[in-house]
Design the sequence.
């Protein structure tokens, strides 16, 4: 099965230190929806794995998160793309869950849901914890420089084998070319 795992905030949409708390605050990064559409049209299933501790912090409800994702899916459909499923961690940093990145729990849930090995499955993120979770799950880590990505690169200590690309469109260029 052709599978790609994406982080959401800072990869697909603009990130915000104040969290994305409403559909209005969810704003696609330039070219990201078209990039996902190219993956979809090339037969890749695109799955999101996203920490959403704003739920645990009481900053927004699951209903609102669903509305945010409905907006994302609508805009993506208009661009010709599709997200197969969205996996989220609703917990906070002190909840001790197994799913909040850098833990690999969402990735192992994805592997179980799709009954696939994650070996060589590309996982794209903008934060160190995305890369760490990817590596822990056996995925191939890709860093985009959108969102927190430039800061992540500047701070160094990236996991061995991390591929670095400007943005999601550059990832797709590289991935579909390979
Ligand atoms: Mg992110
Ligand atoms: Zn969690």
Sequence:
């Amino acid at each position: 099965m052709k599978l790609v795992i994406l982080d959401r905030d800072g990869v697909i949409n603009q990130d915000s230190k104040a969290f994305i708390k409403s559909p209005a605050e969810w704003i696609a990064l330039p070219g990201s929806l078209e990039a996902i559409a190219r993956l979809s049209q090339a037969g890749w299933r695109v799955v999101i794995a996203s920490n959403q501790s704003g739920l645990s912090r009481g900053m927004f409800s699951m209903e609102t998160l669903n509305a945010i994702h409905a907006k994302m899916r609508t805009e993506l459909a208009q661009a010709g793309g599709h997200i197969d499923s969205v996996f989220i961690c609703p917990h906070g940093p002190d909840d001790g869950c197994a799913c909040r990145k850098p833990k690999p729990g969402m990735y192992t849930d994805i592997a179980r849901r799709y009954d696939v090995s994650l070996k060589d499955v590309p996982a794209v993120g903008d934060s160190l914890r995305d890369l760490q979770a990817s590596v822990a799950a056996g995925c191939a880590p890709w860093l985009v420089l959108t969102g927190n990505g430039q800061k992540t690169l500047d701070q160094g200590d990236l996991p061995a084998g991390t591929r670095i690309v400007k943005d999601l469109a550059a990832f797709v260029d590289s991935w579909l070319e390979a």
Summary: The longest strand covers residues 45-51. Strands lie at 3-6, 45-51, 85-89, 122-125, 140-144, 163-165. The radius of gyration is 15 Å. Residues 7, 9-11, 15, 125-127, 147 surround magnesium ion (ligand 1) (CB under 6 Å).
